[in-house]
Design a protein that fits this description.
about 200 residues; alpha/beta; three-stranded parallel beta sheet
């Protein structure tokens, strides 16, 4: 509903949809386009000139650590690299709101944790609002400043709480007792919600 892909049965969602970018579970890259051209696609669709959109795409790809892969094609990328291209494609429009629907779910744990760290750093650098859907309690704990736990369909809010962890989060935080305590709170809320 926030993305405008579905309508609420009651109530409303009000926001400026011009500043929204999406990252889905699958990267959905165009196989015939290079990484650079895939990252530049939203700007192309907006009518931005080729030099400007490629410059913006190069910048986004550098931010996510893919400066050396710009001329590769999706078939030449790992799963983690594909998701980073998808993230760059979302960031290239400089969104005010970034919606992510389980983007790292299919990745191995180490790649997933590195992308979580990178996403948290990008959020801090850009200051945008990020709405991240995940089924991973540890991922929610690491990424979020606020967690909203939902039941199964029809979704109802079970818990809505602030995550009291340091703003700057590194891999070492995952071994901290505070991290384990918050992860347990999220897990307990999921159980109460029938997950």
């Amino acid at each position: 509903m926030i993305a405008g892909l579905d309508q609420p049965t009651a109530g409303s969602v009000e926001l400026d949809r011009r500043g929204i970018a999406f990252v889905f579970q699958d990267a959905h890259l165009l196989p015939w386009r290079t990484v650079l051209d895939n990252a530049a696609l939203p700007l192309e669709l907006m009518g931005v000139s080729r030099p400007r959109r490629l410059e913006a795409a190069r910048g986004a790809l550098q931010q996510i650590g893919l400066a050396d892969a710009m001329q590769r094609y999706p078939a030449q990328l790992s799963g983690g690299m594909k998701m980073r291209v998808s993230l760059a494609r979302a960031l290239v429009t400089e969104p005010k709101l970034l919606l992510l629907d389980e983007p790292f779910a299919a990745l191995d744990e180490i790649t997933r944790q590195k992308l979580d760290e990178q996403l948290r750093a990008l959020w801090a650098a850009h200051g945008m609002t990020v709405l991240f859907v995940t089924h991973s309690t540890a991922e929610a704990t690491f990424l979020a400043d606020r967690a909203v736990i939902l039941t199964r369909r029809p979704a109802r809010i079970v818990e809505d709480f602030r995550i009291d962890l340091p703003g700057e989060r590194t891999a070492a935080l995952r071994a901290d007792a505070r991290f384990a305590a918050v992860t347990r709170l999220i897990y307990n809320a999921l159980e109460r919600g029938g997950a």
